[in-house]
Amino acid sequence: MVEHTGIRVVHRGGSKINFREPVITSDSRFLLCGSGESVKVYSTSTEECVHDLQGHTDLVTGVVLNPSNHLQAYSCSADGTVRLWDFTDGILIKTFIIRYHIFSIHVSEKHVGVLFVVVPMANEKGSELFQLVAVHLPRSGDPEVEVGELSAVLCDVSPNPGAVSFGTGGEYIAAAKGLQLEVFFFKKQKSYRFSLKSGMNKGINNSFTCISCHPKEDCIATGHADGKIRLWRNFNQKKEYTYSTLHWHHNAVNTLRFTPEGTNLLSGGIESVLVQWRYTQENQKDFLPRLGAAITHIAVSPDGSLFCTSHADNKITIILSSVKVSAIIQGLVKDDCVRTDLMIDPRSKALVLNGKPGHLQFYSLHRDKQLYNLDIVQQEYIHEQGVDQFQVVKAAFDTHGDWLATVEERRQKSSELEINLKLWSYDEQTQSFVLNTTVTAPHEDQITAMCFSPSPETTLLVTTSLDGHFKAWLLADHSDTEESASWSCDFVGGYHLLKPGCCCFSADGSLLAFGFQEVVTVWSPTSWELLTTLSQPPGAVRDLCFGRLSCSKYLLGTSTKNQLCCWNLLTCSLEWNTPMDVSLLQADPFSENMAAFCSQSGSTDLFVFKPSEPRPLFSKKALCTGKVERAIFAPRDQMLESSEEYSQWLNRSQLYFLTQHMDLMTFSTKTEEDRLLASSKQLMVDDSVAITPFYLLLGRHKQQQQEKQELLTNPLAERTPLPQGSIAIKELLDTPAHVLPSASFLCSMFVRSLLVSSSSARVEKEPAEEEMKSESEEVDSDGEADLFQPKQELWGSAAQDPVEESGAPVLTKAQERELRRVKKLDLSWLSSLLDC
Amino acid sequence: MASFKPTKIQIYPQLGAKVTQDTLYWKNYKAPVQVKEFGAITNIDFSPLAPHNYAVTASTRIHIYGPFSQEPVKTFTRFKDTAYSGRFRSDGQLLVAGCEDSVVRLFDVSGKVALRMFKGHTKAVHVADFTSDCYHILTCSDDYTCCLWDIPNSTELTKYKEHSDYIRCGATSKLNKDLFVTGSYDHTLKMFDARVQKSVMTMDHNHPVESVLFYPSEGLLVSAGGRYVKVWDLLKRGQPLVSLKNHHKTVTCLCLSGNGQRLLSASLDRHVKVYNTTNYKVVHSFDYTASILSLALAPEDESVVVGMTNGILSIKHRKTSEEKQGPTGQPRRQPVFRVFVKGRNCVPKQDDFLVSKSAKSHLAKYDKQLKRFNVSKALDTALEKNRKPEITVAVIKELDRRGTLKNALAGRDEQNLSQLVNFLIGNVVDPRFAPVLVTATEMILDIYKAVVGQSSVVDRQLVRLQELVEREIDYQQDLLEVLGMLDTLFASTLPRKEEVCREHAPVSYEISYFRGYP
């Protein structure tokens, strides 16, 4: 098998934006946050991504504004570098190489040219101890600078960036870890340690979780795992420190932040309620409840007008200081596992998977943006640990996207399973799915697989369950009754009380295959007759897939005992089988191709093949580490025309897969990259404006219009430069306003200069006439009334001679002279005024 | 910030008949008017003429009622014995009736004395009808014969002696003056043509035939006898088309609706069934107080008239369009806040800046309490009197989902607890609520285990609850046994086709609730 080099595996969006605290710029227009290996710049008003600052080669672990230049930002990454960016233009300014795995970054206005970063004690990734070091940035013009000196400030700090904070303009730095709070004063070069008594024996976990220092006063607020907030004062000595306790949160305080003026303290936790405490009047609180998911970070803009909270569901909420939500930036929500399979919505071509608890998310792959969330469970989410929640475990679309079936499940401790099957119909008017039927307890046990029939005649849904049955659900139309159409069970079947694990319809919907442990049964969905059974022991069937198009006579199955089998449905016999541990088999809906992900010694290999051909079309060894459990072929909106044989399978659709670490990856070919590059050049627009779709639309439109106009009006010559450069105009502009002639006079002149002037021949003729005219004006003391005359003449002459229009609007010599003359004339006129 | 999502009240499927167009149509009649006659009403016939009077044959007289009168407009009493089969001629001028004394009498509708008397039968004449040319009369008698008579001469034209038992029904063709059908207790239907001297078609009904009816097209024939209604295709030499068995006693009368789309059958089992004539499914059914002998529909289905064995004539008139809306015709006035909401009808002008106000969502009281995490109060609110049990159960379920059901149930005084247990007694065995309420019951027993015996009220209720649960367990056990029996029956009756096993889902589903309950 040949390895192909033309196809690369690339990350495709969907990275976490809530990993580290976001930063709001000082003008509150942009929001910066680390997202995977890049830093994203969002507009706070439009929620659109303005820039994607790429350069880091590993996870970005912190973003801070440059305290000495508010248009620049530092970002640190696990690749051991700190980069300085100009985020308004999206330019990398400098790279500082530190060569340590950096966990977080802190800066202070008082320490110019010094960065504080948290690095592991020993330079290994697995190290458990971390230290805070000061990095003195060398002054050098090179774009890449090696940083030599690192001086340790605090030893044994928490890697959590929320547990370190600068106080009162950088006079001291406070860090918390475990049950200990350490405050380091830079002036005295001395640190104080305060520790809390462990409340473990009372069942209270009062360890520190986060810390925030008051910007004006000597006060440190600390959050604790038991939900308490302590305000520490008088800590510049060992003994007589004091603290007061605030308690509202019933679970750990995840994050704390003082507003820039220090008047308010913001806190958040798993309750997903933003609490605003009044400093010194702590019994007055404001709440912003139901933010959707646990708050992980809070950031405040330097002017205090905006807050933003990042949430556990990969979301950043931008909140006005009046505690009102103004915008939400939502990334791809990735739980620890995707319980519903990856799906493609046939209408919007969006990737669909379970998102927030009880929701299904629609995610645009092309725009790397969540389109919307569909609330499946429709219940109030209780933000509390240890509460069993309903989870969306299965979902399926029918071929046209008219129907959506979802299964939600809630397994209570020590009680029976609650399952609901819901069927949603697409509503053209609201452009979303509307609940049609809810079936409570459709099966007695977990539902293992669910699929819609692809045949256009019937709307049929099949579910298989661990209770040993499969059920067919039909859309019953009650045309004779008042009720609308609803779904009901049509058939219940089983096979020797074996548990069905998977089901698959053939491409035309005429056959239905179930995997009953080791046996594959093939049924006719019209008559519910068992047509045949296929079996290839040992090993239970894991995945079933009918071939498509020219390969529709094949049925492929994978088993748990390292088998990939292909049955011929015409002869009902095994066509071929290979010993492969296929973890996932996925069919391309637009071609005969199948993709098999095989896990082998801790990594995954990919084979793309046609069931009818012995050689795979494409294979890639060691695609990624760990098993690939979810993958999907997404249709391309524009077909690629790649002629290379190895990349032809990517022409119609694109293969996306989720790795074990929940990274969304895809394959990209050379032609695609070229095209992307070309399109990115097109998208270069004025950076000062947020790139909204609206702008793109109008901007392009305008551009096109301009081009068209140019073509129409001036087919011969290119646009000529405006006559700003002319000496006469400069002179004119330099003269003080009070000595100039009246504006109406100058205006007509100026407008004339902008007109597409007549031919040079005419220009040659003009001056004589005009000189005469002007002389006559000179005689006339109140020449204002007659001033329009020459202009009219000019118009007239232009009308007489429309053919010779192609001249340039540069001020011709004649015009310059005229202008100068006007000046002269004007001065004389002025002097005459002075005289009288 | 998302808004609070209210507790979802589950909607349970309503058992019973679905509301179809047919049920709406056939239910759209007023309450029946009942008239007491002297004896069993054997025949009802509507006049084809405009006011559509109808002749009701009962005992020794024939009453003619007007469409809306409850008193007879006219009465024919000149019968020596029980009269049968009073029928109008197609011009509505003449009426013919048979009699127990074997004499057939012809009346003028406006007169009183019989115009003609046809004597020739030897036994009771149960059927008398006009042929479509209006000049002849068909009679069928218990002497196994049927006759055709000439009205002007009152002479017998032809006598057919083909049946071997009483002839109790007959019908003449509306399209052909020579064709008629008779049905006899010898289980056969015979079709006669007056131009030939014998029957042209014989159909076997297998039961004594009580009623026959031509379809308006006369391509199909319906016969009723025994518990069966059968439809015959006359164009295919009397081939049986369908056999309907929807009554559990003898079907006595047949009738077609005004548009010919629905067939009605009346039976001694006190029911009238309405069939769809395209698929012969029962689409509606009427219920009466006594066995029905006769049934007639006014043209355009304006009224349904039914005669019963106890001599009661029941008349149902169709509701007119005004009456259909009934008392709810005028929309009920909602309480309006016209006084308080100023500028309700104000339309923004062109340059006005409109400040939109988000609509305030209304939450139920228990939802408001749930929103504030006041769980005990929410449960109290849900347990209030005259709340639907669905709502209470939904709140209990929601509390259980939040993991705070125990907190909500605990710490109640005697009165509160007895209210709670009362609710459980009422609903714990309801299969819709059992899964939720069984958990709640267990929790209550756990919580209040220590205080059992301190209050006589609660103790009494707990004993009742225990009895109830025990009874329910016995009941479910019986059901399981029945299910087992049914399974063996089904297994033995199903053709031996391996692998496929059909499930009888609805029954087993309910039983599983109580499996394993103490």
From TrEMBL, chain A:
Coarse class of the protein's main subcellular location: nucleus
Subcellular localization, as worded in the UniProt entry: Nucleus, Nucleolus
Keyword line: Nucleus, Repeat, Ribosome biogenesis, rRNA processing, Transcription, WD repeat
Region of interest called Disordered, as start-end residue ranges on this chain: 762-811
The organism's taxonomic lineage, starting at the top: Eukaryota, Metazoa, Chordata, Craniata, Vertebrata
WD repeat ranges, renumbered to this chain: 53-95, 246-277, 440-473
Membrane-spanning residues: none
GO cellular component: small-subunit processome
Extent of Basic and acidic residues compositional bias: 762-776
Residue ranges of every copy of the WD repeat-containing protein 75 second beta-propeller domain listed in the record: 342-662
A Pfam family: Beta-prop_WDR75_2nd
InterPro entries associated with the record: Beta-prop_WDR75_2nd (IPR057644), Quinoprotein_ADH-like_sf (IPR011047), WD40/YVTN_repeat-like_dom_sf (IPR015943), WD40_repeat_CS (IPR019775), WD40_rpt (IPR001680), WDR75 (IPR053826)
Name this polypeptide is given: WD repeat-containing protein 75 second beta-propeller domain-containing protein
A GO MF label: RNA binding
GO biological process, one term: rRNA processing
UniProtKB/TrEMBL annotation, chain B:
WD repeats: 118-159, 244-285
Keyword Ribosomal protein: no
Residues annotated as signal peptide: none
Entry GO CC: nucleolus
InterPro entries in the cross-refs: U3_snoRNA-assocProt_15_C, WD40/YVTN_repeat-like_dom_sf, WD40_repeat_CS, WD40_repeat_dom_sf, WD40_rpt
Cellular location(s): Nucleus, Nucleolus
Keywords carried by this UniProt record: Nucleus, Repeat, rRNA processing, WD repeat
U3 small nucleolar RNA-associated protein 15 C-terminal domain location: 348-489
The UniProt record lists the keyword Nucleus: yes
Pfam families recorded: UTP15_C, WD40
A GO BP annotation: positive regulation of transcription by RNA polymerase I
PANTHER family in the cross-refs: U3 SMALL NUCLEOLAR RNA-ASSOCIATED PROTEIN 15 HOMOLOG, UTP15 U3 SMALL NUCLEOLAR RNA-ASSOCIATED PROTEIN 15 FAMILY MEMBER
Subunit structure: Part of the small subunit (SSU) processome, composed of more than 70 proteins and the RNA chaperone small nucleolar RNA (snoRNA) U3. May be a component of the proposed t-UTP subcomplex of the ribosomal small subunit (SSU) processome.
Function: Ribosome biogenesis factor. Involved in nucleolar processing of pre-18S ribosomal RNA. Required for optimal pre-ribosomal RNA transcription by RNA polymerase I. Part of the small subunit (SSU) processome, first precursor of the small eukaryotic ribosomal subunit. During the assembly of the SSU processome in the nucleolus, many ribosome biogenesis factors, an RNA chaperone and ribosomal proteins associate with the nascent pre-rRNA and work in concert to generate RNA folding, modifications, rearrangements and cleavage as well as targeted degradation of pre-ribosomal RNA by the RNA exosome.
Name listed for the protein in its UniProt record: U3 small nucleolar RNA-associated protein 15 homolog
Originating species: Esox lucius
The gene coding this protein: UTP15
